[in-house]
Specification:
Helix content is 33%, strand content 23%. Helix 8 links the parallel strand 6 and strand 7. The longest helix has 24 residues. The structure holds guanosine-5'-diphosphate and magnesium ion (MG). The site of guanosine-5'-diphosphate has 15 residues, from helix 5.
């Protein structure tokens, strides 16, 4: 396998591999003989043997996370669209709101055209673009965060004015707070005679969400998703919050980003909706996506149009991967197809190995069970 493993190191330092494994264990690092080691661990071992690592250890190309740690020079950054996630309790109107926002944004020449469900879409507001994640809910939000993909810039929490704060409302607040993203409260269903927006405000104060007109810093917009009331105001508030955040990215580099959703299609093979974080994704780009790889064959936007390039915060559905990745996976564009393939295969192999090791794991419990 590629990379430097313990056996390689053992040879370098003329030590027994088991000795190095023990040393690592004492340092709290678990490693087996054939596992490729990270640069940090190699340096750690070198220090243990009193050697300053002189030669730079080459960065492991298959470590996609590393590409996300790269600092981007301020002067290369340009304003990008905000990425917005809509969350809230079931039946409080998330889907209705998403649909309305989407319809309002469909321009005359697109009207009647097929809009495509790709898991995310963009809305134009006064010459600005807003990206909405059409996530099935909190779960996707959490999975993405767990995988290091903090894709959301703003959380909209929908609370039905006739129902008030419910368990999933609280969950949504907690998710948004944990992700440290600004929260906009959309008090929905104000068209209903039983709507009581003030009660919603009151209830939310218990969770530290306080409206501006009550001296707090949370933006509240009273809307009716169904009747299309105040949705313009909601969009304006999103732009306002985005402006304060000064969201920027460098469009002039090889793209990196994450997977919004992915599936295996009978006719098209693997398709994945990618959200570009930095750079511009292009048709023909060699790419590694999670544990899959390929070359971007086609790109389709949320309006079902074929496009050739996609800049920061743009969601696109791509084809051309050898397999379907998973939602929340990271993607990185490589300079050539050969290195993309090598990195992709290495990742797939490691994932398989990890899978095997986890199923092989013997605990006292299952050991006794098998007796
Ligand atoms: P979700 O579970 O949060 O996605 O909620 P839905 O969008 O599916 O909405 C649940 C129900 O509430 C549906 O019957 C909607 O028609 C209704 N609904 C959503 N928004 C409004 C609104 O602003 N006013 C009224 N009266 N009903 C709404
Ligand atoms: Mg829904």
């Amino acid at each position: 396998s590629e990379g430097i493993n313990i056996q390689d190191i053992a040879k370098v330092f003329h030590r027994d591999a088991t000795e190095i494994i023990k040393k690592l264990m004492m340092l709290g690092v678990m490693a087996n003989q054939n596992q490729a080691l990270s640069k940090d661990v190699i340096e750690l071992i070198a220090m243990e043997y009193g050697v300053e690592p002189i030669e730079k250890v080459e960065v492991d190309k298959s470590d996609l996370e590393l590409y996300f740690e790269e600092e981007i020079p301020e002067e290369a950054k340009k304003i990008r669209p905000p990425v917005v996630t809509i969350m809230g309790h079931v039946d409080h109107g998330k889907t209705t709101l998403l649909d309305q926002l989407r319809h309002t944004s469909v321009t005359a020449d697109e009207a009647g055209g097929i809009t495509q469900h790709i898991g995310a879409y963009q809305v134009e507001v006064d010459g600005n673009t807003v990206t909405f994640l059409d996530t099935p809910g909190h779960e996707a939000f959490t999975t993405m965060r767990a995988r290091g993909a903090d894709v959301t810039d703003i959380a909209i929490i929908v609370v039905a004015a006739d129902d008030g704060v419910m368990p999933q409302t609280v969950e949504a607040i907690n998710h948004a707070k944990a992700a440290d993203v600004p929260i906009i409260i959309a008090v929905n269903k104000i068209d209903k005679p039983t709507a009581n927006p003030d009660r919603v405000k009151q209830e939310l104060t218990e969770y530290g969400i306080i409206p501006e007109d009550w001296g707090g810093e949370n933006i509240f917009v009273e809307i009716s998703a169904k009747m299309n009331l105040n949705l313009d105001e909601l969009l304006e508030m999103i732009l306002l919050v985005a402006e304060v955040q000064e969201l920027k990215a460098d469009p002039n580099r090889m793209a990196i980003g994450s997977v919004i959703e992915a599936r295996l299609d009978k006719s098209q093979g693997a398709t994945a909706t990618l959200l570009v974080k930095e750079g511009t994704l292009k048709v023909g780009d060699p790419i590694v996506v999670g544990n899959t790889y390929g070359r971007v064959r086609t790109m389709t936007n949320d309006k079902n149009r074929r496009i050739k390039t996609a800049g920061p915060a743009t969601p696109v559905e791509i084809t051309g991967l050898n397999d379907a990745p998973q939602a929340g996976d990271l993607f990185v564009v490589f300079e050539d197809e050969k290195s993309a393939r090598a990195a992709g295969e290495e990742r797939a192999m490691r994932a398989q190995e990890a899978q095997r090791n986890s199923t092989k794991k013997v605990t006292l419990d299952n050991l006794f069970e098998s007796l």
